[in-house]
Design brief:
Blueprint lengths: L5 H4 L9 H9 L1 E5 L5 H10 L4 E5 L24 H12 L4 E5 L8 H5 L4 E4 L8 H11 L4 E6 L3 E7 L6 H5 L7 H12 L25 H20 L9 E6 L4 E6 L7 H18 L1
Parallel strand pairs: 1-2, 1-4, 2-3, 4-5
Antiparallel strand pairs: 5-6, 6-7, 7-8
Length: 288
Amino acid sequence: MTEFDYENAFSRNLGIVDSVEHARLRQSTVAIAGMGGVGGDYLISLVRAGVGGFHIAEFDEFELANFNRQYGANTRTLGRRKIEVMLEYALEINPELRVKIFDKGINTGNIDEFLSNVDLIVDGVDVFAVDIHPLLINSASARGLVTIAAVPLGLGAGILAFGPGGMSYDNYFAISPDMSEEEKIIQFALGFSPEMHHLKYLDPKSINLKARKGPSSIAGCKLCAGFITTQALLALLHPSEIKLVPWYTYLDARLSRFHHRRLWMGNRNPLQRLKGYVAKKRLENANG
């Protein structure tokens, strides 16, 4: 049996990163919140990229409805805790990983520990968890840390980065306490996809915000994983190349539409406010 050797296992990364950068990745620690639709894929991708340390958080278990997109979901893992399964997969790739687990997810009681002694934050929390995203991102920004996040949108993905020097979470998304949970979700998704190309082919009847359900695709999740891995490498090795909000990146692979630009005023942009109103009415009409 071949004995594990880090340098040999990840040697094909060299040329994209140099030997000094590769060593830096090995010493880096990334905190990933969520091990589900996108978070599990983020973990595996960053392990393969050479990152040597992680804090991972997740409270849920795998179920049949996860099979269409989640990395660790299969008949062998059905009913098992996602965090335990993903840790096993990660250690099978690099048994020398440094990993700290948070098996109750993240909350106000453990957020400080989750963010301690890490170099980068990755938000892989379910899009419907509207109160957890600001807790994570605001707490990280207060510590001077960058948070990168991506959301699968149909057959595409939207990507954002938050941190010192960029717009705050609250200013970018323009989510107010008086909004309903459904309105908060719309605002959150709109910030990742200002052009909303995916709504041209998604069936609005498949989206039920009250039940916290919507269509998902492995294509969108894999696009998120590719973008997040790239952004993580930049944040860890070339931080000056990271563009924080109001910059956003949005790709719809089905329609071959790509945007990388600044969203002036974030969701407070008058056009964004109109789009949010239209999206809300469209969903209300579809769910009658």
